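Severity: low
Component: inverse-folding endpoint
Summary: output formatting inconsistent between runs
Steps to reproduce: submit the following structure tokens with default settings.
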């Protein structure tokens, strides 16, 4: 079952040239894309390939010029449904500082929940649960300005979880974080997917994050160029590189070994698989 469906979507930004004449910047043309309920999808693509535009189309921040985006049967172009759609699809952006609205962590997490008109006792419970889920309970009464980037992003994620969404779309949530902050955020996202069944759409530039997804989609010029499991996509390493992206380091290492005559039937995606491969090879 799909939670989000893009049906023949066209989208252009409308801007003005130096003579204040209206110009259209086409980004998506006839895009068809389904996101299955409960799945974890990673979206990759070089700068300007249309990833953030797609993210904003999923919950009606932007609406298609043509075609439709449908969330659990509701069209994002239907203004009466936009409130329900935003409650189903939560969005986390790149810069944690831009997402913080309060000077106390727990108030910040409660903000979206309160806006949905949830009664205070229920909000209280949801905020406590959400902070626990992201491992930030001990910071509930702290000021967000005292937190690390990774901690701030986990607070942003908690604010979304407190609204009990079915899906969370994250647009490069780790781009401004250090390695440990990135790990914290990705582990939290994976737990939400595996344990709470929340559908995840993760836009990222990091291949080590993408390989953790069930499905990887690579965009270029607003079109889907590769779409499959991480192993299927990174098996096409030449195509991935031609689209201006890296391949995971472990994948690259084993590819280099293959060029030197070593054999490997599998596509190696991470350090664990790489270690197993090397161990087997040394034993045989
Ligand atoms: N508000 C806007 N007005 C005009 N053009 C825009 C606007 N936002 C994005 N664009 C253009 O639309 C295209 C797609 O942009 P988008 O932000 O979706 O790409 P992206 O894949 O998210 O890029 P990045 O990796 O840099 O975040 C780009 O050519 C961009 O310049
Ligand atoms: Mg972007």
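Observed output (run 2 of 3):
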């Amino acid at each position: 079952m799909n939670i989000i469906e893009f049906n023949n979507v066209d989208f252009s930004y409308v801007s003005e040239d130096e003579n204040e004449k209206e110009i259209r910047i086409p980004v998506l043309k006839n895009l068809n894309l389904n996101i299955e309920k409960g799945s974890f999808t990673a979206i990759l693509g070089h700068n300007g390939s249309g990833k953030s535009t797609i993210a904003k189309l999923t919950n009606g921040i932007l609406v298609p010029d043509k075609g439709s985006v449908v969330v659990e049967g509701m069209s994002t172009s239907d203004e009466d449904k936009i409130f329900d759609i935003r409650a189903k699809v939560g969005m986390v952006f790149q810069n944690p500082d831009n997402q913080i609205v309060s000077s106390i962590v727990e108030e910040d997490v409660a903000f979206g929940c309160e806006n949905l008109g949830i009664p205070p006792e229920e909000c209280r419970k949801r905020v406590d649960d959400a902070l626990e889920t992201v491992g930030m309970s001990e910071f509930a009464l702290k000021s967000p300005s005292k937190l690390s980037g990774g901690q701030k992003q986990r607070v942003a994620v908690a604010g979304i979880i407190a609204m009990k969404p079915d899906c969370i779309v994250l647009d490069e949530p780790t781009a401004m974080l250090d390695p440990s902050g990135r790990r914290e955020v990705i582990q939290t996202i994976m737990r939400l997917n595996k344990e709470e069944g929340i559908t995840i759409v993760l836009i990222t530039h990091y291949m080590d994050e993408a390989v953790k997804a069930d499905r990887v989609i690579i965009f270029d010029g607003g079109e889907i160029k590769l779409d499959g499991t991480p192993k299927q996509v990174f098996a096409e390493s030449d195509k991935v590189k031609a689209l201006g992206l890296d391949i995971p380091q472990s994948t690259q290492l084993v590819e280099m070994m293959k060029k030197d005559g070593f054999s490997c039937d599998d596509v190696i995606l991470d350090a664990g698989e790489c270690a197993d491969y090397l161990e087997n090879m040394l034993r045989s």
